[in-house]
Design brief:
Chain lengths: ~130, ~500, ~425
């Protein structure tokens, strides 16, 4: 699976796709692969705040739970409604239709500090 | 070659609801010797229910056959070894079942007049006394219903004590090797959890401990021997470090089977600990419970014990509710009394010397297995094992086979798996505790099976990866069970409606 | 074996332990006893324990016949000595029976999902309260004084350090929850309201009315029961958000207070908040129906400090006793059993001075006019009858009252003796 150039990435395996002062956040293909079959995704409600570096939800496989860390700060506009009924989509299309949340960014330039697609792939290649 | 017996009869058996037939029942009540009463009249029509929809309707014989057939699908201690680490799956003596059913004890109501409950109270007193001897602590409560419940009780008492000293403090230290109940319990008592990393021998790092213990630390939860089966040789020093900073030490007694008669936690400075009566003291697991989590405390914590406590009054036992500093009750009534009877019977049967012998036998069995398996499996830590030994799947992982797969293949050899992937500090852990009640013959069969599997991993890994092959049920789809949980039966018509 | 491990004697297994921790004296426990001596010992203890008395005690623990088949089933080694069903392939017996148990509890209580049992009814109450706190994000709990007093004490112990304030609700002259008091205390900080029906006085509560009031403030309604047999006849609390209760009545020996089996049941939407083990239906790799423990990520062994609870054990063997009991009585039998209880209790009640006049199931509160509960009970003990529970220890305002329970096991002749005792005083 390819890592879109337009996205930014974190070492905790999240991606951000900025669009003006809004953004979509998700987890990477590498992450879903490590987690195995995903059974449940716990996401925050619209209107809640997310803070860069802090957890905002979790992803569960049968035997493990992983926290998801916010790569940027902002307010949740919408959690992805697809994932409550179809958590398996997160395994199938983590960069596309299985985004986790849409946020209104607190500070749109925050994402610039994150890794590029090339740097992220180098990072996971090196892991 | 698989040497153990495999069942030859495996019957299909539907659920009770699928066998039901209207009007069938399995029980007959006596005729009423008082006038019949109309429920709608005395209770009010709105308070009377319609029939219990879809409740089973089967005959007595159908009930018996149903559960008998179901039972044949279970593995059990009565069938063979359970090498589960820290579970202490020893023989469950049947005399204990008999005495627990003694009529005067089994039918005793917790509120019956104390002068008619002296026998029951004597059981409680005797067991408390025996456990004080065994743990070297100063007092015991038998109220908690299970190990985790005992942990909750113990940490609550620590908190209560610290509050009398001015501050409950903020956090509990938990080694990264600890059982999951430990951090979960700390949270329930309003503490945050700080994990401390084990050293390269799987034990507590003294230097690290000294650095992290400060006046924010209420206590340390420690398991000894720890979850890799190794005795914390610095235990006295560990307790001292905590005590010097006004903190306390909680010991998870799940591994007490390694210590009974050999060492006493009270002697090395432990302030409070729980015991799992369903582990060390042989009470049956029953498929997942009941248990009993006796809690033993040092003198400093005795005022905080849950109430009521037994007291001696003019040659009789009585329940004392006047305990101003008690943390309160952790459950109604006095404890899992039926389990206490079994544990007491076990202790009586062994006696002091017998208990110590049992411990030595448990250690011997574990070390014997370790010796046989070490050439084939990577021992996790180079320290002497006590009652259990822990390996990692490092060698097998090279062929793409993990501990979970080996465990499933073990089933084909007629054994229950060992504890898989715990403790978390060991990569791909295999945690093995045979207990003292296994004979050399059973141990040899087990070792042979494990060695055979190690060879299969090299020569034919697919066989292991796709195991088990011989069971009625093959690997279950846990993913779908978690994605779309179905946790009750529904009649077919209603299922298809719900799916729409 | 010693030779294989390279040791000289068994003592070598422990001689490496630090000298200052090794125990040097034998345990002060008498020499091991034979099987016969142990049986005799407990026989004596049983005899010293009020053997052969008729009893009218209820108050959370009930005397009901235990069908013989119950012990036959649970004595099978495959049930008695098996471990928690983590390995589904070799635990289908336990898992299937848990699935049946969960189903029957839903059918009985009117809820949609039930877990594989809690330690007991009393500890299920704070677990339900914690669920409500997690679900609503609020922290206050209201609990009726007509909930079993010891259950309320347990709630207090659990909540004192998690920062949830708990307030009690009064009862009205009828013996039921005082709805006005509820109305006054209910606000939008309340996470849950906890009631019991039949309540501690044996009286039925107005669940639908209480439920709409509770719901109007966005709180959850938790309904508890201690007498499971009542559910054979009375309308279950379908309006509850969470039901908790005690199954001791279903073939679990009174056994001086434990072990018992509690239940927690709720609506589908809260399934991920429910504590404890859950058995789920699935398929195996051959496409056959199979059961396994599921949603384990809620639990302590995975979630650790973020778990829904620290609970590890469920009361599997006792839940199995209850399952066998429910299967034997079945749809009609459970109702008939409940009807017999109703008849017995109402016969006895018709002969005694009642304190409350609201509808009750098989327990009721009696006044002692002029005499005292202890006097009545003393005279009954002389006739080898254990009378009702004097309520003064739990309700000082009811110090002249007692709680009587009559089940299918109580004989009319004994009830007539009780009536005569009251008539005398």
């Amino acid at each position: 699976m390819s890592y879109p150039e337009a996205y930014r990435y974190t070492k905790e395996h999240e991606w951000v796709h900025v669009d003006g002062d809004h953004a979509k956040i998700g987890i990477t293909d590498h992450a879903q692969h490590e987690l195995g079959d995903i059974v449940f995704v716990d996401l925050p409600k619209s209107g809640s705040k997310v803070t860069k570096g802090h957890t905002f939800g979790s992803v569960e496989s049968v035997k493990a739970v992983s926290d998801i860390y916010a790569p940027v700060s902002g307010e949740v506009v919408e959690p992805n409604p697809l994932l409550s009924k179809h958590p398996e989509k997160l395994n199938e299309d983590p960069h596309g239709e299985a985004w986790l949340i849409k946020v209104k960014l607190a500070s749109p330039s925050e994402a610039n500090d994150l890794l590029s697609a090339a740097d992220y792939q180098k990072y996971i290649g090196a892991e | 070659m698989i040497k153990k017996a495999i069942r030859h009869i495996v019957q299909a058996e539907p659920l009770l609801f699928e066998q039901s037939s209207p009007g069938k029942r399995g029980y007959q009540l006596p005729e009423l010797d008082v006038p019949v009463v109309d429920a709608a009249t005395v209770l009010g029509k709105g308070n009377v229910r319609d029939e219990i929809e879809d409740f089973p309707e089967v005959s007595e014989f159908e009930v018996l056959r149903h559960f008998t057939r179901l039972s044949t699908w279970n593995y059990a201690i009565d069938l063979g070894l359970y090498p589960l680490g820290s579970c202490t799956m020893k023989y469950n003596p049947r005399v204990n079942e008999l005495v627990a059913r003694t009529e005067g004890l089994a039918w005793a109501h917790p509120y019956q007049p104390e002068r008619l409950a002296q026998g029951a109270m004597e059981v409680v007193a005797a067991l408390e006394h025996a456990l004080v001897q065994i743990t070297g602590m100063d007092a015991v409560t038998l109220q908690p219903a299970a190990g985790a419940h005992g942990e909750f009780t113990g940490i609550l008492m620590i908190r209560a004590l610290l509050e009398t000293r001015g501050s409950a403090r903020k956090k509990i230290l938990v080694p990264d090797s600890a059982h999951g109940t430990n951090p979960a319990t700390a949270m329930m008592v309003g503490y945050t959890v700080e994990n401390i990393k084990s050293n390269d021998r799987g034990m507590i790092d003294l230097g690290l401990l000294e650095r992290v213990v400060n006046e924010d630390v209420a206590g340390l939860m420690i398991t000894n021997p720890n979850t890799v089966g190794v005795f914390e040789e610095n235990i006295k020093k560990i307790c001292q470090i905590l005590h010097d900073k006004g903190a306390l030490v909680y010991m998870d007694g799940a591994n007490m089977n390694a210590l009974v008669g050999v060492a006493r936690p009270g002697d090395f400075g432990i302030d409070v600990m729980h015991l799992n009566l369903h582990k060390t003291f042989s009470t049956p697991h029953g498929g997942g419970g009941p248990g009993s989590g006796a809690v033993a405390v040092a003198e400093v914590l005795t005022p905080f014990l849950p109430g009521p406590r037994l007291k001696r009054q003019a040659d009789q036992w009585a329940w004392n509710y006047d305990l101003p500093q008690s943390i309160g009750r952790v459950r109604a009534f006095y404890g899992n009394f039926g389990v206490l009877v079994r544990a007491l019977a076990y202790i009586m049967a062994h006696g002091g010397n017998g208990l110590r012998q049992a411990t030595l036998d448990a250690l011997l069995n574990a070390n014997y297995l370790r010796t046989l398996l070490e050439p084939y499996y990577q021992i996790a830590y180079n320290a002497p094992s006590m009652h259990e030994c822990v390996f990692s799947d490092d060698r097998q992982a090279k062929e793409g086979v993990r501990t979970g797969d080996i465990a499933k293949r073990l089933i084909d050899y007629g054994f229950h798996p060992y504890t898989v992937s715990f403790p978390l500090i060991v990569r791909g852990a295999l945690m093995i505790e045979p207990t003292e009640t296994e004979s050399k013959r059973e141990l040899d069969l087990f070792a042979d099976a494990m060695i055979s599997i190690a060879k299969e991993v090299e020569e034919n890994p697919e066989l292991v990866l796709k195991a088990p092959h011989s069971t009625r049920t093959s690997r279950v789809d846990e993913v779908t069970a978690a994605r779309k949980p179905i946790v009750r039966w529904q009649p077919p018509a209603r299922v298809s409606q719900a799916a729409d | 074996m010693l030779a294989a491990t390279g040791l000289e004697s068994k003592e070598d297994l422990v001689s490496y332990l630090p000298a200052d921790v090794r125990l040097k004296t034998p345990l002060d426990i008498p020499h091991g006893k034979s099987e016969y001596e142990i049986i005799e010992h407990f026989k004596q203890l049983g005899a010293a324990n009020g053997d052969g008395y008729a009893s009218f005690l209820g108050a959370g623990v009930y005397n009901h016949f235990r069908p013989v088949l119950v012990d036959t089933v649970v004595s099978r080694g495959e049930f008695l000595t098996s471990y928690t069903p983590y390995q589904a392939e070799i635990s289908q017996g336990t898992l299937t029976s848990i699935f049946e148990f969960q189903t029957m509890i839903c059918q009985l209580t009117g809820m949609e999902v039930a877990n594989a049992s809690m330690y007991d009814g009393s500890s299920a109450v704070p677990e339900a309260a914690m669920m409500a706190v997690r679900i609503t994000g609020r922290d206050k709990i209201l609990i009726a004084r007509t909930v079993h007093p010891e259950y309320r004490e347990v709630l207090k112990t659990y909540t004192q350090h998690q920062g949830f304030p708990v307030e009690e609700l009064a009862y009205a002259k009828s013996g039921q929850l005082d709805i006005d008091d509820l109305r006054t205390k209910l606000n939008d900080q309340v996470a849950a309201v906890i009631i019991q029906t039949p309540n501690f006085f044996g009286i039925l509560e107005h669940v639908p009315e209480i439920s709409s009031l509770v719901r109007s403030k966005g709180a959850l309604l938790i309904v508890a029961f201690t007498e499971a047999v009542a559910l054979g006849l009375i309308e279950p609390p379908r309006d509850a958000d969470i039901v908790v209760g005690e199954l001791q009545s279903f073939a679990i020996s009174p056994s001086y207070g434990g072990p018992y089996a509690g239940i927690i049941a709720t609506r589908n939407q809260y399934i991920r908040q429910i504590p404890g083990r859950l058995a789920g239906e699935t398929t195996d790799s051959n496409g056959n129906r199979a059961f396994c423990l599921t949603l384990a990520t809620r639990e302590q062994h995975i979630r650790r400090e973020k778990a829904t609870s620290n609970i590890c054990t469920n009361q599997a063997l006792l839940a199995l006793m209850a399952t066998v009991f429910m299967s034997l009585y079945g749809k009609e039998g459970l109702r008939e059993l409940a009807e017999q209880n109703l008849a017995k209790a109402h016969y006895l009640a018709s002969k005694l001075p009642l304190k409350f006049d609201a509808p009750f199931f098989n327990e009721f509160v009696v006044r002692t006019n002029g005499s005292s509960p202890d006097q009545i009970n003393s005279s009954l003990l002389n006739r080898k009858i254990i009378g009702g529970l004097p309520l003064g220890r739990f309700y000082p305002e009811l110090a002249d009252c007692m709680l009587f329970c009559a089940t299918e096991m109580n004989k009319r002749s004994d009830m007539d003796v009780v009536a005569a005792a009251f008539a005398r005083f």
